[in-house]
Each structure stands twice: as structure tokens, then as C-alpha cells.
Amino acid sequence: MLLTLDLNDPRPLHEQVAAAIRRAIGAGDIAPGDRLPPARDLAHALGVNANTVLRSLRDLRDEGLLEFRRGRGVSVLRRPDGRAALRTRARDLLDEAVKYGLTPDDVVALVRDVGKEMA
Description:
The chain is mainly α and 119 residues long. The chain is built from five helices and two strands, in the order αααββαα. Strands 1-2 form a two-stranded antiparallel ribbon.
């Protein structure tokens, strides 16, 4: 499992780690039923503190994506709901847009323009 973090991302590290794991599950790199490596190993691979990874894993457990089992580690329960994931990203986009003085209507128009360019 190859996870990466963006050092320029302004989000807290635990959110970035959770997003990276969520993406890996959504992309099928990690399937439901698969066990994740120990938090210590993930932390070492990502260059973050083990407590940061544990917080991310707890967040994903609270979302219903992961299951913690004593003696068996952390397993993937299900894939994330794409609509819910996009909703989170849309919130992030709107938060970023506010920094540039854009309204939600401006962002909608921008997304429509990009959609037309991609079609």
C-alpha cells in the first residue's frame, strides 16, 4: 500500500492521512476485508507520528470504513460512499474559494466551465 502526503496541504496531518487511506480504499488498492499495516509502520512510511495515524484510523472507524479487532488489527469494512467523499471535497473547495473572495455561485459556474472543457 503506497500512501503519500502533500507537504503543501494546509489541512492537519491526521486529516491528510485519513484522506490518503480513504482514497486507497476507494481506488480499490485496499479492499474490504483487507488488514491495514500496524499504525507504527504506516507512521514510519509517511514520516508522521504514530498518534497522528491512530487518530486518522479512529476517524475512519467512526465513519464506518474501518473495524478495530483486538488481536487482529485494523480491517477495511467497506468502500467509502463516493457522494460523501465528494461532499467533503466540495466543502474544502468552498472554504478555499472564500479565501479568494468567491461565492458558492461563482464556484458552481467555475465547475460548469471546467466540465464543459472536459467534455
